[in-house]
Specification:
single chain; two-stranded parallel ribbon; 3 helices; 2 domains; five-stranded mixed β-sheet; alpha/beta
Length: about 250
């Protein structure tokens, strides 16, 4: 009787030990996953480092395709800088653009490129109430300091980006991020004024990129991602600019 009891006790203890081992393995796996996930995200919220790198490449690629389309309609279709049209879905209507659509970037007769919008995971979710959240913008009311003349340039913007996406864009452009932070522009920039055929002859200081803060180090750069310290719903935000047509 005692032998049977001892056998059952030993068997029960062995079973319990096995369960403890399984629980330990499960906990270790969970901790490993959590650590790995945290390392991938690198403090960027809901986007991993790999996703941020892909987002940066796609945004840059799209900006370059827009620039190529601008050059194409100007050279092949002989469109003037005032006839360029970003019209799509009733927005960016340029009354100066020919009715043949040959100067429309998003029409087959013109630039023949698709209209894209950024994925929300690429953006700063704290700026979701920003008017430009979830869209790109095309502006002719501002300029980039020391690019061509003091006149306004035609600029593509990817506004309110996730910080890690912004940093990756600069890395791709071989632009430094001092102390792991994009350069700062503290006068604000006009990302909300749609280009509809006219340019500001001399942009105001508040509409000029790279004229203040640490962004002066980027003077003459046709493309970069910067941190705007004003004009972002009372806070700061990360905006990528790309000069499509320097004037």
């Amino acid at each position: 009787m005692n032998r049977k009891t001892n056998w059952h006790v030993q068997n029960s203890q062995s079973g319990n030990a096995f369960i403890y081992i399984l629980v330990a393995i499960a906990l270790f796996a969970a901790l490993t996953y959590t650590f790995t996930r945290s390392a991938q995200q690198g403090g960027t919220g809901d986007i991993s480092k790999q996703e941020a790198a892909i987002a940066a490449s796609e945004i840059l690629s799209y900006a370059r395709s827009i620039e190529e389309a601008v050059n194409r309609v100007r050279v092949k279709n002989r469109c003037s800088e005032n006839e360029i049209s970003f019209e799509y879905g009733g927005n960016y209507v340029n009354a100066s653009a020919p009715g043949t659509n040959k100067c429309h970037l998003f029409e087959s007769a013109g630039g023949n490129i698709p209209w894209h919008t950024p994925q929300t995971s690429w953006l700063d979710s704290s700026q979701s109430s920003n008017a430009l959240y979830g869209s790109y913008s095309y502006v002719g009311a501002g300029g980039v300091d020391d690019v061509e003349s003091a006149a306004s340039d035609l600029v593509f913007f990817a506004p309110v980006l996730n910080r890690q996406v912004c940093i990756n864009i600069n890395n791709n452009l071989n632009i430094s991020n001092p102390s792991d932070e994009p350069a700062v522009d503290d006068t604000g920039i006009l990302t909300e004024t749609p280009f509809t055929g006219s340019y500001a002859s001399t942009p105001a200081a508040a509409a000029t990129i790279n004229d203040s803060g640490s962004s002066t180090a980027l003077s003459g750069e046709n493309a970069a991602c910067i941190r705007e310290s004003t004009g972002c719903n009372g806070g700061s935000c990360y905006n990528f600019y790309y000069v499509l047509l320097a004037r």
